[in-house]
## 1
Amino acid sequence: MSVLLIAEHNNKEVRPFTYNAITAASQINEDLHVLVLGHQADDVAKSLSEVPNVKKVIHVDNEIYENYIAENYTSAIIKHAENYSHIVSSANTFGKNLMPRIAALLDTSQVSDIIKVISEDTFLRPIYAGNAFATVKSNDKKKCVTIRPTSFDPADKSGGSAEITKSDPAEVSSSTKFLKKEEVKSDRPELGTARIVISGGRGMQNGENFKLISDIADKLNAAIGASRAAVDAGYITNDHQVGQTGKVVVPDLYIAVGISGAIQHLAGMKESKVIVAINKDGEAPIFSVADYGLEADLFEALPKFLSELNKLNTIQK
Amino acid sequence: MKILVAVKRVIDYNVQIRVKEDGSGVVTDNVKMSTNPPDDNAIEEAVKIKEAGKAKEIVAITIGEEKAQETVRKALAVGADRGIHVKVDNVIEPLAVSKILKKIVEKENPDLVFMGKQAIDDDCNQTGQMLAALLNWPQATFASKIEVKDNSLEVTREIDEGLETIEVNVPAIVTCDLRLNEPRYASLPNIMKAKKKPIEQINASDLGVDINPRIEQIKVEEPPKRKAGIKVASVEELVQKLKNEAKVI
């Protein structure tokens, strides 16, 4: 049987992690269908039909799907579920909110946040903030799986021409109402997919000092991350948080500044290819995962780091 | 209003996890256990709502072995009125937990159910949403702010893009983020008082729900270790290494 992937989008564009989830979903089974629930999201359906790994796009267009409400999404997905062996989405706040609601109604024990597809029913997933990896086999007939997007490469976006079929909306929930979304707009790359991430922690001391980080981020075309301590202290908004309960990032280069390295933070970044730690406490646990550790006062090191970067004339973008 | 708060006993967040040599799981013997951190936020929020005069009773519930009661006792010490302990011998999956909670909700008839957004042991992040589905109640997950209205809640949710605010009618399920509030510590007198508060014990097997595992844990292993890195002496050296050795800038 086929796999049904739930697309994440904003009615205009496909959200990037959907492409990573497509890669994982097509490893489960090549007959991959994508469900787009949206309002006037024809561009989204079209983009997804051009992904070579996608065999069919089901598009449900209705104003009740303009904002993403798990209750409304769920009733529409359940309507289609009987034709599929697996229901799949990314394990970000979108899929984490949605998938268990679907799984419970299908009486399926969900497999969350997989990092590897071993077979159609067996997956690898991190537990205990990534301090252990569990190989698990789902014995449910229908499987609900969420995918850690950073563990899979994004799928190719062009060259395919899947059929797009229209489908009808399902019932709407009257007990949940969308009020507003406060989205932080930025010209910087997205934290989850950036090639370079520079993060600040409690050591930054206040929000203004994050300017030292953002100057370097601008120079390196990097995304800005933060530890939970920095977000809790109000230095920076929650969408920057990296860690067990924040975002998981796997950039080519992760620069941790003034972050001690609690296991909850390490859970969100320790798979990064190259890790740099700048911290004045030489005993900080962050140094145990760093490829390059610099024991220094960040207020001296960061301006110097920027001026050294400015001397290089070949920074990769 | 009546609020049911679900709490879970997990390995303390500060403990360095060790994987058992036979690959059957992680070491839990002689390891410090605590309440799952965001479950403390769930209790705190319920207590604040009660203190504001908007809730009459808080019931704390846990599902687990005998010692799981400690988490309920802790909830009683910070302000829950009474407790429920549903006894199970083995680790059960979130689907089974939500089926048990559904039975308890049907018996207790709370207006709200609060719990942490995720348990830090299995990192599943499922139970609240599953319970909401089984009850056909609205769900407000990853809550960092809750405003209680007449017959609804206005909840600010932490999402990847920033913050989202939704309104859910009561009865509803809320799963709590760590940023929802600052959990208080129990005072000694309150810890003493909590010892006298009742905890009802229920055997999961008496509830008539299927809690058998659907997922086989084939093995648990240590994640691959990172190669030890080096310390650099200066910013100049760091930049040179990043450029010429790691080739990432």
Note: Residues 130 and 281 of chain A are 25 Å apart (CA to CA).
## 2
Amino acid sequence: MNTLKKIRKREVTQKAGKPIYLDYQATTPMDPRVLDAMVPYFTEKFGNPHSRNHVFGWEAEDAVEKARTEIAALIGADPREIIFTSGATESNNLAIKGVSRFYKDRKNHIITCTTEHKCVLESCRNVDQEGCEVTYLCVAKNGLIDPNQLRETITEKTALVSIMGVNNEIGVIQPIAKIGAICREEGVFFHSDCAQAVGKIPLDVNEMNIDLMSISGHKIYGPKGVGALYVRRKPRVRLTPLFSGGGQERGMRSGTLPALLCVGLGEACTIAGREMAQESERLHYLRDRLYKGITEQLPEVYLNGDLDQRIPGNLNFSFAYVEGESLMMGIKNLCVSSGSACTSASLEPSYVLRALGVSEDLAHTSLRLGIGRFTTEDEMDKAVTEIVTQVKKLRELSPLWEMAQEGIDIGSVEWAAH
Amino acid sequence: MSYSDKLIDHYDNPRNVGSMDKNDARVGTGLVGAPACGDVMKLQIKVTPEGIIEDAKFKTFGCGSAIASSSLITEWIKGKTLDEASNIKNKKIAEHLALPPVKIHCSVLAEDAIKAAVEDYQTKRNEGPDAADSKEAEKARLSVG
């Protein structure tokens, strides 16, 4: 922890005068210790890990295999079950399309849920067009699926269940151990997109009966552009690869491995495994401070998603009567993300919030606050002050707030849609 | 997305924020947009007997561009006749604030808000208790002219 404290101290001085980063679910800064581990592989140890005939290749291969072992250790897997990819998007594509295509002659049904990441939903849509049936489970108001409903949905044609570990917008933790147990009983493969879960909550692929797991590098203080897919060997999961090529990664993912990125991902996993418990405790403390600071000073603020079944690094609030993008513009020193339509090209408010049953007008007022390894207490206090001040200011500017104060029910007004 | 200095200035220091008595015969109120769409503008104008907008107030729920557009129009319409105000085009607003293409609808909404406020004022005048009187006066003025 001493090195970590030193790093945090250095970060604080480096961050002075800069905006406060509260978007840890979008990406995380790379841990300087990860960078240190990667540095030799940029220049001196540049070999191709697949070169079998010289020392440069062997050196790179050793490094990649060490990294594979480190990733496996974090999730209780065997190193031979780890496939390197370019990131969680590729891992999710490979898991869903790969399993669906391989087994489609025997089984042609996939179950997922409405709040999954876009890359899971789009992959499912893709296999749907290829003739595989997809069932989308709904979530309850707290963002969680009902395992019993899942059990009822499984048929003898079901090949795969894909449910994420932790949601990227609202941070809620799905009951993956229960889901895994059901899938195992029913003889169905269980894939979990754990991009937001790995390194944040304890995971064990055997205890949780997970057959495929997607992992991302840049969500766990590792490098961008690298990820992994865990693929169970016993009972063996088979998949049709997405890429044609040299047959690397046991034929499941062709392409030369970027040894330096693999090393970075391995180191990030080692640090996460070692420091998870203390980090989680620290983040819980910081998050409670943020949560209390905001909710005790502002009325009509609603938390989206379950508070208890949630990673400590995430809060997602709807600030009624204040539009999300204008709030982001006001909190100039805070870097956050919003579920408001105005921040996306689609002009639709967040589909995740809509799936929870959050009304469209409240979805427009939502803000995601993500904290992590380098967030400090001082930053939390500054964030609270800035958010509270701006929400108050924008409510004074809001005709909806005024109407609500006059006792007018916004829902009863007939609005002219445009 | 980066915004123009003019837009940020209007967002940071919105002009003419507030409300007027909507039951006042001299006041016209326009309420446009919808919460579900992410923007609602309320624009109010106070009109002199000569038909000049002497004051304007707004409140807006919406993104920064929506707030800036409504703040800007309150400045523009003050001192104008109802006709002049109604003729303000959204394009002018968008140009002045350098709105990015995805935010053009904010300027459209601002244009709509002016039209709605003017219309509300005119409806009130035509239906109001002294509407008949003012029609008489109008006739008298015309016959004199």
Note: Chain B touches chain A through 31 residues (CB under 8 Å).
